[in-house]
Design brief:
By secondary structure, the protein is mainly alpha-helical. 40% of the residues lie in helices and 8% in strands. It has helices spanning 28-35, 60-76, 80-83, 87-95, and strands spanning 7-10, 16-19. The chain has a two-stranded antiparallel sheet. One of its GO terms (cellular component) is cytosol.
Length: 96
């Protein structure tokens, strides 16, 4: 996450990790896109490896592409600040 620009890593005594930008400026969509190598969850999304014989006439591919876009758009609308709004409860859950 540090190499991707989301975190600042400090070594040594007193070191640790901190967000590189305010949590309100980091969308979950950005993080997911950086952490996942691709979103080709069906074979026909990849032109280089697709062997599906019905790709040219398939009516499902466009719906799946639209669904993938909607999924990522939904994640783009959520920031790290949004998902960590209740930090005390989150810290308590993680410490157990």
């Amino acid at each position: 996450m540090g190499q991707l620009g989301f975190l600042i890593n400090s070594r040594g005594r007193g070191g640790g990790v901190a967000l590189a930008r305010p949590s309100s400026e980091i969308s979950v969509g950005d993080v997911i896109r950086q952490m996942e190598s691709n979103f080709d969850f069906v074979e026909c999304f990849s032109e280089s490896t697709n062997t599906c014989p019905i790709t040219k006439v398939c009516g499902l591919k466009s719906a799946l592409l639209q669904a993938r876009g909607a999924f990522l758009a939904a994640l783009d609308s959520v920031t790290l600040a949004d998902v960590t709004v209740n930090r005390r409860a989150l810290a308590q859950l993680l410490s157990n």
